[in-house]
Design a protein that fits this description.
Layout: E1 2-6, E2 11-18, E3 24-31, E4 35-40, E5 46-54, E6 59-63, E7 66-68, H1 75-87, E8 89-101, E9 110-121, E10 132-138, H2 139-147, H3 154-167
Parallel strand pairs: 4-9
Antiparallel strand pairs: 1-2, 2-3, 4-7, 5-6, 5-10, 8-9
Helix pairs in contact: 2-3
Length: 176
């Protein structure tokens, strides 16, 4: 393995991999510590979304609150921290919706997805590089925003769909 770049959020490596077919190949792998993402759902059925500036996406996009795991941090602890920091809320009820691999062809990033309910305000605490606007929409409207192409962030689409099915009683599963 050769480390090409190591930053605060990711590490980029050239790695030798032994494939199940017996071949050996060199792969470019982006190592990431993982993350947690939250669907904050109010009692009135409104989901708390954020519009966040994302340079790589070319501007403001709709997302759910999310953030990178700190070393040794449990996914639920990360989710609690990010909910408070990004939208200024805490939740007394947490449900695991599952986890997703973002792009397993070149990164090991895994995002843990949670549904947060019974929200109370605690005050937003944005980091210096975060530009975030809090936006509330009925969960059904957030699903319609996905259909219209207004929400196209992968983790957000996955988490909102899982939350929608869960809230409707159509999904009591947890993907690992």
């Amino acid at each position: 393995m050769t480390t090409v770049y190591k930053g605060r959020a990711v590490e980029f490596n050239l790695e030798e991999a032994h494939l199940p077919n017996g071949r050996t190949v060199q792969l470019e792998i982006l190592r990431h510590p993982g993350a947690s993402a939250i669907v904050p759902l109010q009692e009135d059925g409104q989901v708390v979304l954020i519009r966040q500036y994302r340079h790589a996406a070319g501007g403001m996009i709709y997302e759910i609150p999310a953030g990178r795991l700190d070393p040794g941090e449990a996914p639920l602890d990360c989710a609690r921290r990010e909910l408070a920091e990004e939208v200024g809320q805490e939740a007394s009820q947490w449900e695991r919706l599952g986890a997703i691999w973002t792009t397993p062809g070149f990164t090991d990033e895994k995002i843990h997805l949670f549904l947060a309910r019974h929200l109370t305000p605690v005050g937003q605490a944005l980091e210096h590089d975060e530009v975030i606007e809090v936006v509330k929409r009925p969960l059904e409207e957030a699903i319609a925003m996905i259909r219209r192409g207004e929400i196209n962030d992968g983790k957000t689409i996955c988490a909102l769909m899982l939350a929608y099915f869960h809230v409707r009683g159509e999904g009591s599963w947890v993907n690992r």
